[in-house]
Amino acid sequence: MSRVVFVLLPGVHLLDLAGPAQAFGTAADFGQPYLLSYVAEQEQVPSAQGLPLIADTEWPELGPDDLVVVPGWRAPTLRGGPELSPAALERLRAHHAVGGTVASVCAGAEALGQAGLLDGRRCTTHHELQDELAARHPRAIVMRDVLFTADDGVVTSAGIASGIDLALHLLAVRHGPALAAQVARAMVVYARRNGHEPQASAMLRHRSHLDDTVHRVQDLIDARYTEPLPLAYLAASAGVSERTLTRLFTRAAGGLTPLRYQQTLRLERAEHLVSRGMTVETAAREVGFEDARMLRRLRARVLF
């Protein structure tokens, strides 16, 4: 079971914390349980909304499959805000160094910057704090007007509710788009938001439309993307002709046909598996390609 450790600082925004915690907690309902932990410099942490929170002062043991998330806090400016201790910053660096994922919501990007994890990497934060983040950490590549970024195991999201988008992206990459869609539906959130960031998961990137017919077909592809899914079968499942489905799908999904959408899901999952040490050949078989040649061609065309 993977663990998610939330690092709480004084003035933490409840939604910055509760959104991702709810998403990872809900994943257990669909067969992917996460152990949630909360750590802080002191046992009681005041929140921005006045509700005091209780946290552990000792960090649990972490492995490469675990996540560390720093929720944001109320901060008109980043300067003068709460800071992690040198020991906690070293924890963040050490977890990333062994292959673990470190993430932030909103102002939490400042903590990642203090740890040096934003240097040379794409990142984002709340739109009111982006200029200051760029000034305080000039080696960071601050992306504006995006919901979240993912770069070499460092994942950052914009303001407040975008932490939910970040969590859904991580669930989609780690467990497949169907799981992320199930979690989103259970939470009754709009699962198809994206900020036109290339690192966004395919499930989010090509779901920003309102065509129910296409969403039903995408639900089917999401759940069975490793299987052969002929266009005739997809069209029959949707109750439309093949020609109509192709027309509706390409219009709604940014020009992708159902086959290209399925290939995008396979490629995204294969990239994750390769990043975890799996060979290209094994990853290709795992996601449904008959051999690795197609995967290699797709990887050469697309940069995630």
UniProtKB/TrEMBL annotation:
Origin superkingdom: Bacteria
CDD domains: GATase1_AraC_1 (cd03137)
Keyword entries, A-Z: Signal, Transcription, Transcription regulation
SMART domains: HTH_ARAC
PROSITE patterns: HTH_ARAC_FAMILY_2
SUPFAM superfamilies per UniProt: Class I glutamine amidotransferase-like, Homeodomain-like
Signal peptide: 1-23
Pfam entry (one): HTH_18
HTH araC/xylS-type domain mapped to chain residues: 215-304
PANTHER family cross-referenced by the UniProt entry: ARAC-FAMILY TRANSCRIPTIONAL REGULATOR (PTHR43130), HTH-TYPE TRANSCRIPTIONAL REGULATOR RV1931C (PTHR43130:SF3)
Protein name (record): GlxA family transcriptional regulator
Biological source species: Microtetraspora fusca
